[in-house]
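Thread amino acids onto this structure.
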């Protein structure tokens, strides 16, 4: 066994050492078993033992003649992201799917591209997942990021967000419990915004309430709808106090806590001196008993 095989190296350094020593004679029976190769398997330059290919986003070797980071799996290409230069970063070669088109699986899930679909197939081969067709699956909207409950004081601003994935693309409406029409209506302190993204075939919407009032409290609902159906998610706005009342309440609570703490300290002081007095009295009685016994 060579020395480097017993050390913990980045596998690229191990490959360089192996190349320096030469490929040697191939012994397939000594090749380790491949487990969990989500991007498939590739052969290294020596062409003896198969190894797991690199996944999307992993670093790779731009030159096929070198073998440091490893090779990308089927359908993946090793590319440099020159956009890193604009941010002052050194670009690193990464595996990128050669086909950016979304695909639909037999599980009725839309995958960003065929590479992520193949990764899902390799993750669990027992599911018999197959490729249904190119392009996204047609489905009812799916809320991937729902709005969350908010607790805030009156006079402050609050924003609810909602991200929806659907094909065909969905529209988003905001409703408040008890309202007959969707927001914002004619209320000037409520506004809504929507845009596509951040992922493909997704739309994100926001509901903003400026200078919230106590009457704004309640449940708000994000409704997404396309030709195939709709989905919804709700969140609650709780606004019990305004800023002035809250500060007054906190000040009152702090004063009450301080008073309670002072009273507790006084009680402890009294108890301490009572105990010390009893201890002194017991000690004195014990000493007098000893003197009487000795006499």
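Threaded sequence (295 positions):
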């Amino acid at each position: 066994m060579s020395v480097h095989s017993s050390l913990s190296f980045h596998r690229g350094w191990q490959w360089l050492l192996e190349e320096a020593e030469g490929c040697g004679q191939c012994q397939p029976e000594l090749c380790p078993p491949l487990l969990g190769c989500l991007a498939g398997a590739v052969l290294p330059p020596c062409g003896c033992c198969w190894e797991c290919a690199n996944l999307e986003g992993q670093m790779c070797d731009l030159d096929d003649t070198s073998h440091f980071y490893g090779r990308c799996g089927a359908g993946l290409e090793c590319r440099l992201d020159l956009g890193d230069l604009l941010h002052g970063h050194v670009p690193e070669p990464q595996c990128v799917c050669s086909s950016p088109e979304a695909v639909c699986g037999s599980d009725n899930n839309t995958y960003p591209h065929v590479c992520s679909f193949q990764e899902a197939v390799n993750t669990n081969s027992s599911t018999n997942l197959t490729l249904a067709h190119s392009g996204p699956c047609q489905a009812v909207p799916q809320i991937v990021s729902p709005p969350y409950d908010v607790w805030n004081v009156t006079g402050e601003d609050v924003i609810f967000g909602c991200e929806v994935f659907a094909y065909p693309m969905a529209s988003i409406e905001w409703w408040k419990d008890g309202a007959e029409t969707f927001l914002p209506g004619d209320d000037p302190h409520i506004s809504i915004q929507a845009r596509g993204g951040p992922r493909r075939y997704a739309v994100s919407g926001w509901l903003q309430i400026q200078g919230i009032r106590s009457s704004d409290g309640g449940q708000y609902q994000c409704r997404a709808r396309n030709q195939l159906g709709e989905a919804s998610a709700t969140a609650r706005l709780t606004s019990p106090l305004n800023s002035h009342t809250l500060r007054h309440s906190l000040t009152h609570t702090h004063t009450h806590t301080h008073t309670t703490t002072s009273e507790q300290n006084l009680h402890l002081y009294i108890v301490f001196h009572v105990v010390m007095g009893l201890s002194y009295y017991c000690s004195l009685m014990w000493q007098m008993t000893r003197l009487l016994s000795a006499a």
